[in-house]
Amino acid sequence: MPTGATRDQEEEEEGTAPVSRVVTVSPQVFNADVESAPAVRFAELARRITAAARAAGLVTPAFRSPPRHATAVRTIRRLPGGPVVSIRIRSRTPAQVAGDMIDGVIAANRLRGDGAVRVRAQLVAAVRAGPPLPPTVGRPARVAERQTQAA
């Protein structure tokens, strides 16, 4: 083994290096809360709601967070490629976020009256039908919320 070579380098040279290796980059205690981040719940809700809306033959908006307007909880933009519904997820419960996402689908499709009530019931059932959403951690997770500005 050359001076300064590591054991891994020596094993590679001899052809005895293990085929696969698990490398831990942080203690397990840090990895446990990753699934409970609000952004993960938001993405899972978006998948469920979008799939149910598509199955019902509705226009499926894109979801993003946070809204561009600093004080808004939910906004909708109608763009040529389709509507974009922006939802604030910070300091809000998953039920509040899901309700706003469902309302965004209804607004994007311009539904009113009985049609809106029927679609809302279908989307709520879709949210509840899947596996349980990751729980909220005791303390709020830090989530990087991306701000974009139109050029």
Topology (elements, then pairings):
Elements: H1 7-14, H2 28-31, H3 38-55, E1 62-64, E2 74-79, E3 82-87, H4 94-108, H5 113-129
Parallel strand pairs: 1-3
Antiparallel strand pairs: 2-3
Helix pairs in contact: 3-4, 3-5, 4-5
Please tell me how large the radius of gyration is: 22 Å
Mean pLDDT: 75
Number of strands: 3
Instruction: Give the termini separation.
Output: 57 Å
Q: Percent range for helical residues? A: 40-55%
The SS-based structural class is: mainly alpha
Shape: globular
Helical run tally: 5
Short précis:
This protein has 5 helices and 3 strands. The protein has helices spanning 7-14, 28-31, 38-55, 94-108, 113-129, and strands spanning 62-64, 74-79, 82-87. Helix 3 runs parallel beside helix 4 and helix 4 crosses helix 5 (113-129).
